[in-house]
Write a structure and sequence with these properties.
Number of helices of chain B: 13
Structural class of chain B: alpha+beta
Radius of gyration of chain A: 29 Å
Shape of chain A: elongated
Order of helices and strands of chain A: HHHEEEEEEEEEEEEEEEEEE
Oligomer: heterodimer
CATH architecture of the largest domain in chain A: Beta Barrel
Radius of gyration of chain B: 25 Å
Distance between the termini of chain A: 18 Å
Largest sheet of chain A: 16 strands, antiparallel
Largest interface: A-B, 81 and 80 residues
Strand order of the largest sheet of chain A: 1-2-3-4-5-6-7-8-9-10-11-14-15-16-17-18
Number of helices of chain A: 3
Number of domains of chain A: 2
CATH superfamily of the largest domain in chain A: membrane protein fhac: a member of the omp85/tpsb transporter family
């Protein structure tokens, strides 16, 4: 996107350059051949020395003096600079869908600073599948002498046709059913880098209510399953979700990095006040970027294991189970294609730096879900491969476009974030 | 093949020279009777006669400059025109831009060590922070020293301990010696314990508002800097320039508010020559924002003075330890991008295989595969694109004027603690200097300093004198009478010599002007067949050099790019 913006900007600069030459003042002199003085000779009289000749030209320029006038393209950039440096960039695009699988997303946000660094961002998005999200986030990025960042988020979202294919890896793609859910949520997440180094601690709490409903898109999930065969079907659950992460992170940025890695483990506790659908989850994640040939190539690896654990004999609702499939996991499969109590995801990418703003990548994803954690082995993995291009800046990936192929489907992915 | 190309090039240039002469004669005959040479030619200084006090401050958008340079300037077709700020003997006169120093007059080791520094160094016993640092790759502040003088302070990043500060000081000395106006810069110390924050000091926050500068703001900068074991920091302090700050100059066009600025900047030889000087020192951040115009009053006149500032992106210093492509590619360049795209990165770019011997105090700087013709800044400037062979030759003479001792003197000013690193840096500078000499001093007819005396015409061969070429087999001189009013020439005769003294013809006039074309026959350097032309005027019984042309006014086909591969 940055590159595209650069291209667009270049077009306007080029156009302006054609209509408005960079030299507002014409060439007046060539000291070696033309010229003409300190005490300029009388007008019309030829100069009698080189110095006089040049000074005559300088005197001739005086009536034409004017301040520098930027051309139209430069004026646009000046305006943009003013907005960016002045913190006045209020309205911004927002491409995060309400839920994975929502499809092409349109959205916008409005950002307002409360203090020098703290801001409130109110944003909303809509997808062609009618997924909707509206939320407001307060961000304090420089807490505890710049060791911490606090995010307080409140919002509501609705996903209208989330896929469910049954539990396990060996489900058929033809067994797809759909469900709808609505969720109001309010959360706080504190991220700490206590040493301002690689150690990362994160903790947070969220109060949310998941209301699972039939989908308008047939077949809806309740036409195939019953609450007895599918825990959580039709449920309305209010969770107090608490989480804690310990990790080490030495990537240049989670949004874009050519070196470094992240290794972390996150514990989640979902407390249901009705003691019916409470559960716990552990998530292990490892990311490693291996630069080759001075970062012109990067071999990037990602592994993630998610394990949902029973809590006090309560059930884990089907829509909260670990899942695979979609633009950030098994990219050759539809979103939420595989679900079960446990999941394993393995991803590898060969990233090729085309230039400072554009990368291409070949990738291979594999993974599986299983009822028991001990079954998360390398047998029976579902896999896919693909190719993608990424427009990026030094710290973010505003546009990722990929094509992925699995034995089930060919998928096109448009995303406004890094794969991992 | 190479010889054929060069011969063809030499013939073409010769034809162009004759054509240009013919056109000049024609134009002179039918239009005006303006003399070719005035009595005061060659001038030693560009006059600046007009008051420039109405020049106004303006800061160009850096994003605009980046986009323009990457997408428009990079496709700029060079005019092929001779630089326009030259005097009649093909030299750059002194001006508010440039002062002839090394290569024009002897520069002592003491002068070189001092560089632009004329005032006293900062007193670091106490610093008072007054503002954040604006621009630049490395962390810093604006602060007052113990005497209350304002300085721009910049730190070394942790991964380039000593390197960033050393680069600023060393580059400042070099560019000062080369003739550019430079900011006074000193290596000194910054101790947070002896630092206070001015109550009026402020910082612009992301919300666009300025709020008081806090201790935490200071710490945020210090955390990104290399700290000494005693808790202090090595810093480079740049003195606040005198006069009113007007903002950077552009590398194209002229200031419309400065009556004395007549020559489009892309046609100023000293700005074109930054392509050569930049290659030597690896000054990759060659952008408008790294220059500065100030409004100063000198001898009762208010004038615009032009500084080449922020020369710290030299000797392998860059924004990030992992920027390997700097000096090999622009920030964005289609050719290498497509190559990597279609070959999946298997088509390696040169920067991927260069063998750097990296010292923390030096960075990515090497001399073995260095080729100045291939060197690129982060983004091109119009002046960079306009460099001709004669500009490069002029620049190379100045680079060549740095002796090994001069270079070591400059490196010592960087106060690099690691002796091996300092030696390596000096060796690379010497190596790169020699490469520049070899390429650019031999790329055009290298005859310099012609003198017409009783014994005949005497001159020097800069390439031979620099030890980068063999003596040519012979020199040929074509003598002419020259009518200064009409610009016409009348052949007299030709003389030859195997040395750098050629006898003058017997019927050489004893008054007026003579012109002489001098070419060299060299098996290795066909371009030397293209004659240089010198004009002499009888002046008090002696012949005075009043004109010199190394290449024609329009030198299509002689752009530096065509010389690639002749190394």
């Amino acid at each position: 996107m940055f590159c595209a913006a650069l291209m667009m900007a270049a077009t306007s600069v080029a156009a302006a350059a054609q209509t408005a030459p960079p030299t507002p003042t014409p060439d007046k002199t060539d000291p070696a051949s033309s010229q003409p003085p300190a005490n300029p000779p009388p007008q019309g009289a030829p100069p009698e020395s080189r110095e006089a000749a040049i000074e005559q030209k300088q005197a001739e320029k005086v009536p034409e003096l004017h301040p520098y006038i930027p051309n139209k393209a430069e004026q646009i950039f000046n305006y943009a600079d003013t907005i960016l440096q002045g913190g006045q960039l209020r309205v911004h695009p927002f491409f995060n869908s309400a839920y994975s699988g929502g499809g092409f997303t349109l959205g916008a946000g409005y950002l307002a600073y409360l203090t020098g660094y703290n801001y409130i961002d109110t944003r909303g998005s809509w997808t062609f599948k009618n997924y909707k999200r509206i939320e407001t986030e307060f961000v304090a990025p420089r807490l505890f002498d710049r060791r911490g960042k606090l995010s307080v988020l409140g919002g509501w979202r609705e996903a209208t046709q989330v896929g469910f294919y049954g539990l396990g890896t060996n489900t058929s793609k033809d067994a797809r059913t759909n469900y709808l859910f609505q969720q109001p949520y309010a959360s706080a997440l504190l991220t700490l880098f206590p040493t301002r180094g690689v150690l990362m601690l994160q903790g947070g709490a969220e109060l949310s209510q998941w209301t699972q409903k039939p989908s308008d898109t047939a077949p809806s999930v309740e036409t195939v399953f019953t609450p007895g065969t599918l825990p959580g079907l039709g449920a309305k659950v209010t969770y107090l979700h608490t989480q804690g992460t310990v990790g080490i992170d030495w990537r240049t940025s989670p949004g874009y990095s050519r070196r470094g890695g992240f290794y972390g483990v996150t514990f989640h506790d979902y407390h249901d006040g009705d003691d019916q659908f409470g559960f716990q989850m552990l998530s292990y994640e490892a990311i490693q970027h291996v630069p080759i040939l001075r970062e012109a190539w990067v071999l990037s690896f990602h592994a993630r294991v998610e394990t949902a654990m029973e809590k006090n004999n309560q059930q884990t609702p089907f829509f909260m189970l670990p899942a695979l499939g979609g633009g950030s996991s098994l990219r050759g499969y539809t979103s939420w294609r595989f679900r079960d109590q446990n999941s394993l995801l393995l991803q590898a990418e060969w990233r090729i730096m085309v230039n400072r703003y554009f990368d291409t990548a070949f990738f291979y994803d594999a993974g599986k879900v299983a009822a028991r954690a001990s079954d998360l082995d390398l047998n029976g993995l579902k896999d896919n491969f693909g190719f993608g291009v990424r427009f990026h800046g030094p710290f973010s990936t505003p546009l990722r476009v990929e094509i992925a192929r699995s034995h089930e489907a060919t998928s096109f992915i448009f995303s406004s974030s890094a794969a991992f | 093949m190479l010889m054929s190309t060069l011969s063809s090039r030499a013939r073409r240039a010769g034809v162009l020279l004759l054509s240009a002469s013919a056109i000049a004669v024609f134009a002179t005959t039918v239009s005006t009777q303006k003399p070719r040479f005035y009595p005061d030619d060659p001038i030693a200084r560009e006059p600046e006669s007009q008051d420039a006090s109405k020049a106004a401050a303006y800061d160009e958008s850096q994003m605009y400059e980046l986009v323009r340079n990457l997408f428009v300037t990079s496709k700029y077709k060079p005019s092929g025109l001779r630089a326009k700020n030259l005097n009649t003997i093909d030299e750059v006169p002194d001006s508010s831009w440039f002062t002839n120093r090394i290569g024009s007059k002897p520069i002592s080791a003491e002068e070189l060590s001092r560089g632009p520094n004329v005032g006293r160094p900062p007193d670091p016993s106490k610093w008072t922070l007054i503002r954040e640092k604006i621009g630049g790759a490395h962390p810093g502040f604006t602060a007052k020293d113990a005497t209350g003088e304002t300085w721009f302070i910049e730190f070394d990043p942790p991964y380039y301990r000593e390197a960033a500060t050393a680069a600023v000081v060393m580059a400042t000395k070099i560019f000062w010696a080369l003739g550019y106006n430079q900011v006074e810069s000193y290596i000194t110390t910054f101790d947070p314990k002896n630092t206070t924050i001015d109550p009026k000091a402020s910082v612009r926050r992301p919300n666009g508002k300025r709020t008081p500068f806090t201790r935490d703001d200071m710490n945020a900068v210090l955390e990104t800097a290399a700290r000494n074991p005693d808790g202090s920091y090595r810093v480079i302090a740049g003195r606040l320039l005198p006069g009113k700050i007007l903002g950077g100059y552009l590398y194209a066009g002229t200031r419309p508010d400065d009556p004395n600025d007549l020559v489009p900047h892309e046609h100023r030889r000293e700005l074109r020559a930054l392509r050569v000087f930049g290659a030597w020192t690896n000054l990759t951040d060659l952008k408008d924002a790294n220059s500065l115009d100030t409004l100063v009053t000198e001898n009762g006149k208010t004038l615009v003075k032009h500084y080449l500032q922020d020369v710290g992106s030299t000797f392998g210093m860059c924004n990030d330890l992992h920027e390997w492509d700097l000096s090999y590619e622009y920030f964005l360049e289609s050719g290498p991008s497509w190559k990597r795209f279609f070959t999946l990165g298997f088509g390696l770019s040169p920067w991927q295989t260069v063998d750097y011997k990296e010292y923390p105090a030096v960075g990515k700087y090497e001399g073995k595969v260095f080729d100045p013709r291939e060197w690129k800044p982060q983004t091109p400037t119009t002046a960079y694109m306009e460099l001709r062979d004669d500009d490069a030759f002029w620049a190379a003479q100045r680079v060549a004027a740095f002796t090994d001792d001069d270079i070591r003197t400059v490196v010592r000013t960087g106060q690099i603690g690691d002796e091996a690193a300092a030696k390596y840096l000096a060796d690379v500078l010497i190596q790169r200097r020699d490469t520049i000499k070899r390429i650019y001093l031999t790329g055009v007819n290298p005859i310099v300093n012609p003198r017409l005396e009783t014994g005949g015409l005497t001159f020097e061969n800069a390439a031979v004198a620099a030890g980068v070429a063999k003596e040519p087999t012979s020199y040929r001189a074509s003598w002419m009478r020259f009518d200064n009013n009409t610009g016409t020439t009348t052949p007299i005769s030709e003389t030859t010599s195997t040395s750098t003294t050629i006898a003058a013809p017997r019927d050489l006039p004893s008054s007026g002007f003579v012109a002489v074309d001098v070419a060299a026959d060299s098996a290795e350097h066909a371009s030397w067949k293209v004659p240089v032309r010198a004009y002499f005027r009888q002046d008090g019984g002696a012949w005075k050099l009043v004109g010199f042309e190394r290449l024609p006014e329009k030198a299509a086909g002689t752009n530096i790019e065509t010389a690639k591969g002749t190394r």
